[in-house]
Design goal:
The protein has 376 residues and is an alpha+beta fold. The protein has two domains: 144 residues, 2,3-Dihydroxybiphenyl 1,2-Dioxygenase, domain 1, CATH 3.10.180; 197 residues, 2,3-Dihydroxybiphenyl 1,2-Dioxygenase, domain 1. It contains ten helices and 17 strands. The two termini are 31 Å apart.
Amino acid sequence: MTAPAKTEERAITEEGDFLQIKSVDHVHFYVGNAKHAMYYWWKGFGFTPVAYSGLETGNRKSASYVLQAGNARFVVSAAYAPSSEIAAHHMVHGDGVKVIALEVDDVEKSWKETTSRGGKSAWTPREEKDADGIYRTSAIHTYGETLHVFVDRSDYKGVFAPTYRPIKNKVADSTGLAAVDHIVGNVQLGKMNEWVNFYHQVMGFRLLRHFDDKDISTEYSALMSKVVQNGNGRVKFPINEPAEGKRKSQIEEYLDYYLTPGAQHVALITKDIIGAVKKLRDNGIEFLRVPDTYYEVLPERIGKIAQDYKTIQELGILVDRDDEGYLLQIFTRPIQDRPTMFIEIIERHGSQSFGKGNFKALFESIELEQERRGNL
């Protein structure tokens, strides 16, 4: 695919929602140790472990745990054998997102619609059966080694999928995380428009926002980003690419350590970001911190909000406002050893944007982290 002309960019703001995706069904991480990852999401982020698949349930390939916080559902899987696909993925990328699964009414139609428009098939429509019914999926490739799996649960009444069994007595101390707000993908220089076109042409998404290197830049580095979303607005995918700068951008650092394009961060929405951040900090989750000078002009820039500005500063939360309202957001440090993936916590009050007014302060804090790692 080639970069879109202006007429093409106007066209991709038009909606062609032929897939009628309902929501993000789950996000599936391939990791080095599933039990450890499960414990991290459980005790750190307040996700409740709800299901397990492994040797004891007839799964000879991987140990897998399903965790849930509100409507956000994560799966973590680790391989039993070093020759498996999961082990190979982890060796190359470290812990990372392999699958962004999307709930649909008809996996066969979704597969046919996307592959007929140029999507590359990962697997054809298939059924998995057990005593709880039929679990239907199909899948296509997207950026890097990431897959979109189409899921139909209408005839499946089990806890997650065949071979998964319920986990009991592992209720989490909730941190108030409610759902996946958006998932950001990092791609190589010059590839952003190609993947924006992919989501429009292959999956029927429309262009929601466009940020260029003037919007997202510091003295040293910059990136460009476009946001695509499905018809009902529940699935949003910002796509980032690096821009020319004096030093290495955070996108280039990600690509250096992940080795291919991939999911940079998952944003989780909450109705109480102050309460969530307090609990997450108490649980040991580490967040990026912007300079305190950011907060000196914040009340003047943002205006009246329901939250207390002093508490916002103490916790390091960022605030931005647009014509529709305001939002609050904060970003964790990388959640694994490699400086690749992280988590965003976000609370929206009308605003459907992504914190444009916070980009410079946020990126300067990221650059400080890069400098400490020797990667700026």
